[in-house]
Amino acid sequence: MNFYRNLSIKQKQVVWAWSFLAIPVLFYTVIRFYPTFGAVVLSFQEWNLLSDKSWVGLENYQKLFSDPVFWKVFKNTFVYLLIGTPLSLVISFAIAYHLDKVTFMHATIRALYFLPFMTSAVAMAWLWRWFYQPVPIGLFNNILASIGIPQLPFLNSTFSALPSILAPAVWAGLGFQIIIFMAGLRSIPTSYYEAAEIDGVGSWTVLREITIPLLKPTIVFLVVFSSIGFLRIFDQVFNMTTNDPGGPLNSTKPLVLMIYDTAFNAFDMGYAAAQTVVLFTILLIVSLVQLFIMRERKYD
Amino acid sequence: MTNAFDYSRKRIAPAKVIRWTLLALGGIAMVMPIVFMLSTSFKWPHEIYNLKIIPDEPTIENYTYVLEDGRFYQWFWNSLVISTITTISAVLFDSIVGYTLCKFRFRGRMIVFVAILSTLMIPTEMLVIPWYLMAKDFGWLNSYWGIMFPGIMTAFGTFLMKQFFESVPNDFLEAARIDGLNEFQIWWSVAMPLVTPALSALAIFVFLGNWTAFIWPLIVTNDPELYTLPVGLTTFSVEQSVEWELIMTGAALATIPTLIVFLVFQRYIIRGVVMTGIKG
C-alpha cells in the first residue's frame, strides 16, 4: 500500500485504469484475438479432431475454390444479401416515412411493426415453415386454395425455396429498421422543410432533394447492419430445412450453414476454417466500404 | 366561417385517413403470423387446417402435453440463467471499460480502444470453431459457462458506453475525487447513475441477443439437459415433425416471454433502439 501512496495523482489514475482493464484485456486477447489467429492457422491445416494436425498449405483454399457447392453457396449468400437488403430498406423506409406523419395511435401502430423483431428466429422459422406446407396443412396454400389459386411449392422448389426463407428474415427485421429510420427523419431540422414549403417545392422533390440526402448516415448504417445480417444468415435456413439441410439441390444453403456442416457434421476442421476466413474477408470488405462512404461524407 | 373551416378540414382528411388505414392494416398484417401461431397452439389437431383465428373448441391440451415431460421448463430455466448472468456481466464490464477509455488518460489507451473496436469486424462464425476446440480442451462442453463465456463482454457495448460517458461532465468526477472517493466508487456511484438509460438499453440488447442466440449454444451443447430454449425448440420440433399444433405450442412458449417483456417495457425498448442506432 505504501507504494500506491507514494504515487502522484496522475500515476494513481494509471494504476486504476489498468486494473479496470486487466480482465477485459485478457478476455479480448484470449477469447477474440487468439481464436481469430487460430482460425487462420487452422485454415492451412488438415484435421478431423481425431488424427494429428498436418500442414497442407493452401490446399483447403484450392479445394474450396474448385468446389461447385462452394460457388453455389457463395451465390446464395449474395442472393440473400442482394434481395434482402434493398427490399427490407425500401419497405421500412416507406413505412417509416408515412408513420412519422401519423399521430393518432402512433405508438400502437409502431408497436405492431416492431413486435416481430422481439421474437426468436428459431420459433419464427418453424412458424413460417408451417405456413409453407402443402394443402391441407399450410396456411398460405390453404388461403390460396380458398380463393381458387393453384398451390405454390414454396420450400420444395429450387426456385422459390430461397425467397421463402428470406421472407421471415425480412419480416422480423423491419421493425428495427423502421424505428431507426423514424429517428433519422426526426433529426432533420424542420427549417429545411419550411424553406421548401415557402419555395413551393413539391413533396416528391422534397423527399428526393432534402429527406434522402440528409438521411445518408442512417441509410449507410442500415445498409451495412442489414447486409452483415443477411451475409450471416443461418438460424432460419437451418430450422426451415432440417429434413434436407440446405434445401433442394443446396438452393438455400448460405456460407454459415456450409461452415457448420463442414465443421460439425463432417469434422473437416481445416476446410471449415478456410471457409470462415472467406466469410471474414467478405464482411471486412463490406465494413471497409462503409468506412469509406462515411469518410467521404465529412468533406461534402 | 364555420363552414369554411369544416370544408378545409374535410379536404385534408381523406388522404390522412387513407394513410392511417393502410398503415394500421400493414401493422395488423405484421403481427398476423404471431397471432396464427398463438391461435394454433390452442387448437385441436383436426382444427389446425381451418383459417379461423378463434378456435371453435379452444383447448390448453397442447400446453399440458408439451409441458408434461418437463424439458421446456429446463430449457426455459437454462435460457433465463444464461441470459441473465451474461447480461449482468456484459453491462458491468462494458461500462467499466467504456468509462476507463473515456475518462482516463494513459499511455496505451488508444491501442486498447482500437483493438476492442476492431473485434467488431470478426464474425462469431469465424470464432466458433476455435471456441469449440477451446471448450473441448478445458472441459467446458455441455456447461453453462461453456455457453456463456464468449459473451461476457461485448465490443459493441463498450463502444456504446464510451459514447455515453462522454456526456458525463468531468467536473462531477473531479468533485467526487476531492470528496475522497476512490476511482471505483466514482465510477459506480457518480458516473453510472448518470447513464442509466444507456445501461438499460444495453441490457435489453444483450439479453435479447442471448435469449435468441442459436449457433453457439447448438455447437457447444449436446446434452438436452443443457439446451437453451431455441436449441431445445429445434430438437423438439424435429421430433414432432408433422404435429404442427405441438410445434406451434413450443414456438409460442419460446416467444411469449419476450412479447410480455416488450409490452411491459415498450417505451424503454424503443428508446433503446433509437439511442443505439444514433450513437452506434
Write a structural description.
The complex is a heterodimer of chains A (300) and B (280). Chain A is mainly α. Chain A has helices spanning 2-5, 9-42, 59-65, 68-99, 106-114, 121-131, 139-146, 161-186, 190-198, 203-214, 216-231, 235-240, 255-264, 269-299, and strands at residues 45-46, 54-55. A two-stranded antiparallel ribbon of chain A has the order 1-2. In chain A, strand 1 (45-46) and strand 2 form a beta hairpin. In chain A, 39% of the residues are buried. Chain B folds into 2 domains: 2-47; 65-279, MetI-like fold, CATH 1.10.3720.10. Chain B is 76% helix and 0% strand. Chain B has helices at residues 2-41, 61-68, 71-103, 109-118, 124-138, 144-148, 155-165, 170-178, 183-194, 196-212, 215-220, 229-240, 244-279. In chain B, helix 4 (109-118) packs across helix 7. The N and C termini of chain B lie far apart (52 Å). The relative contact order of chain B is 0.13. Classes of the chains: A mainly alpha (300), B mainly alpha (280). Chains A and B meet through helix 2, helix 4, helix 5, helix 6 and helix 7 of A and helix 1, helix 3, helix 4, helix 5 and helix 9 of B.
Offer a concise description of the structure:
The complex is a heterodimer of chains A (300) and B (280). Chain A has 300 residues and is an all-alpha fold. Chain A is 72% helix and 1% strand.
Percentage of residues in DSSP E strands of chain B: under 5%
- What number of domains of chain A? 2
Question: What's the CATH C level of the largest domain in chain A?
Answer: Mainly Alpha
Largest sheet of chain A: 2 strands, antiparallel
Broad CATH class of the largest domain in chain B? Mainly Alpha
* CATH-level-4 superfamily name of the largest domain in chain A: MetI-like
Number of strands of chain B: 0
Structural class of chain A: mainly alpha
Query: Uncertain regions of chain A: pLDDT < 50 for 5+ in a row?
Result: none
Provide the succession of SSEs of chain A. HHEEHHHHHHHHHHHH
The most extensive contact between chains is:
A-B, 91 and 92 residues
CATH topology of the largest domain in chain B: the name is MetI-like fold
Mean pLDDT of chain A: 90
Q: Please report the number of helical segments of chain A.
A: 14
Cα(first) to Cα(last) distance of chain B is 52 Å
With strands numbered from the N-terminus, the spatial order across the biggest sheet of chain A is 1-2
Query: Measured on Cα atoms, how large is the radius of gyration of chain B?
Result: 25 Å
The low-confidence parts of chain B are: 1-9
